[in-house]
């Protein structure tokens, strides 16, 4: 067993032990913190680690990873927590059982997130977690892992179906503006042509969304029957999602940017106030494994479709889009840059992006709420979330079907 970089643990602690059900050892975590976390190193000057444990954050199985809250106990100090993220696709394995390239795809996605943190994160003025150690995934050689700052007790995650207020949307957009401005100003040779949008290809080829959209029809038949049938035509067409959320911007003459790819509330941590209420300020943007060179309005459209009340979205979306455009122009001007695109181009791109992300808005209520049983003390709250999610999907579908008619059908099919 490799020795720890410093003798920070008691001899009675077996640092070769794996954390929970992960392939990552206590030793790896402690060494990672000694390498990358100044606060941990300071704590170790006055106390030794007597125990390290981990528990899965959230419901258990994640889409492409498991996330653990790691608690480090000292001999004479309060416990210290960090987060360990390990790629894994247990919750999706059945849906992809006939597609043998799925492991390589998820290896690519984890390593892509590693590259984002290694290459770009420290240069972008947005809310990101501190990363203490990065380990790329090499099949058969080493598991992938990210060791990062914990926001437990100081932040709230709404989940994929959680709705944001108009004020929170404004804060989320401010982050997007700074993110997109960085890549618009970055020399093209540093990133363009290096990050293709391929992460959803296996999802579409596996027809992953089809059973969920079919289930949605049974949840509210009169509402979703006709529109969902139109969308079912595209659930196995990789070009549908790729064109509507990515390539359409090129056809409209917009410069490409690096897209987050999954900019929604399941990947956003909102700061909490002293009494535990949720503030309008972002603590961190997480999960960068779907980054790709794409359309500058796609992340905004994703957030609006999936995480904003449908009526509020309809009332404010073009105003929000105009604010996004004006803020980006202003930020570019402060850096001595100008923009060579118009608001009209952005609006047309946004509508096309919205058509693509409506697929996700339709998926969410069926995935999270169909055929589920809940404890009595949670049923009323969850049923309220269910109805909100269904209404959001309904209004997304109405708008998307109108905007779908403006898109070239031949570019939506494989």
Automatic annotation (TrEMBL):
It comes from the Eukaryota. Pfam families: DUF1679. Gene3D superfamilies: 3.90.1200.10. InterPro entries: CHK_kinase-like, Dhs-27, Kinase-like_dom_sf, Oxido-Kinase-like_Enzymes. SMART domains: CHK (SM00587). Residues 146-334 form the CHK kinase-like domain. This is CHK kinase-like domain-containing protein. It comes from Steinernema hermaphroditum.
């Amino acid at each position: 067993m490799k020795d720890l970089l410093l003798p920070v643990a008691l001899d009675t602690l077996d640092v070769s032990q794996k954390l929970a059900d992960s392939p990552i050892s206590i030793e790896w975590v402690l060494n990672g913190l000694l390498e990358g976390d100044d606060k941990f190193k300071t704590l170790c000057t006055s106390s030794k680690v007597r125990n390290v444990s981990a528990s899965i954050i959230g419901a258990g199985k994640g889409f492409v990873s498991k996330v653990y809250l790691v608690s480090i106990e000292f001999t004479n100090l309060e416990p210290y927590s960090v987060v360990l993220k390990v790629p894994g696709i247990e919750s999706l394995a059945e849906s992809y059982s006939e597609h043998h390239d799925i492991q390589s795809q998820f290896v690519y996605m984890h390593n892509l997130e590693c590259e984002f943190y290694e290459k770009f994160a420290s240069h972008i003025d947005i809310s990101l977690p501190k990363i203490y150690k990065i380990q790329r995934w090499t099949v058969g050689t080493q598991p992938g892992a990210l060791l990062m700052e914990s926001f437990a007790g100081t932040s709230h995650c709404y989940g994929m179906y959680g709705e944001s207020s108009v004020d929170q949307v404004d804060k989320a957009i401010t982050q997007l503006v700074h993110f997109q401005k960085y890549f618009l100003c970055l020399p093209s040779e540093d990133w363009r042509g290096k990050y293709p949008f391929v992460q959803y290809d296996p999802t579409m080829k596996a027809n992953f969304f089809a059973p969920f959209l079919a289930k949605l029809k049974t949840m509210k038949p009169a509402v979703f029957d006709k529109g969902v049938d139109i969308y079912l035509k595209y659930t196995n067409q990789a070009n549908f999602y790729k064109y509507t959320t990515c390539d359409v911007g090129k056809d409209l003459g917009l410069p490409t940017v690096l897209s987050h790819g999954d900019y929604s509330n399941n990947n956003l941590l909102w700061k909490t106030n002293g009494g535990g209420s949720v503030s309008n300020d972002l603590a961190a943007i997480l999960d960068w494994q779907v980054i790709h060179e794409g359309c500058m309005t796609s992340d905004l459209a994703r957030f609006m479709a999936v995480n904003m009340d449908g009526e509020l979205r309809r009332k404010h979306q073009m105003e929000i889009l105009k604010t996004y455009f004006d803020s980006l122009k202003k930020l570019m001007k402060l850096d001595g840059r100008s923009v060579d695109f118009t608001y009209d181009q952005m609006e047309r791109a946004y509508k096309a992006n919205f058509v693509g992300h409506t697929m996700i808005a339709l998926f969410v209520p069926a995935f999270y709420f169909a055929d589920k049983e809940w404890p009595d003390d949670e049923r009323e709250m969850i049923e309220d979330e269910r109805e909100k999610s269904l209404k959001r999907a309904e209004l997304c579908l109405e708008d998307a079907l109108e905007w779908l008619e403006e898109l070239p059908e031949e570019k939506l099919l494989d």
